[in-house]
Design goal:
The protein has 89 residues and is mainly β. It has one helix at 5-11, and strands at residues 16-22, 25-35, 40-52, 61-67, 71-74, 80-83.
Length: 89
């Protein structure tokens, strides 16, 4: 049986993730649950983020944050999911 996106997401339950909905907007939070019907993810301690890129810094950086609580994101609207790792010392 091939590994699906659901297997990969379930492996990261409880980790902090960044979900990009379009090039300038997304959410960060803790992956709380993965659902198959409807296909989506639940984030807890979520924040809405605005991403900005410039000619000097082409990789998008978080420009602003707005606190949210818990939210559901349908996988049809997601462009990219990144697992955020704590910084090393």
């Amino acid at each position: 049986m091939p590994i699906t996106i659901f297997h990969m997401l379930e492996k990261n339950l409880g980790k902090k993730i960044r979900v990009i909905l379009d090039p300038a907007y997304g959410f960060e939070g803790t992956l709380a649950a993965v659902t198959h019907e409807p296909a989506g993810i639940w984030l807890s301690d979520a924040e809405a983020i605005v991403l900005r890129a410039t000619i000097a810094q082409p990789i998008p950086q978080v420009a602003s944050r707005e606190e949210r609580s818990e939210l559901f994101l349908h996988l049809d609207s997601v462009q990219r999911i990144e697992v955020l790792h704590p910084p090393r010392r």
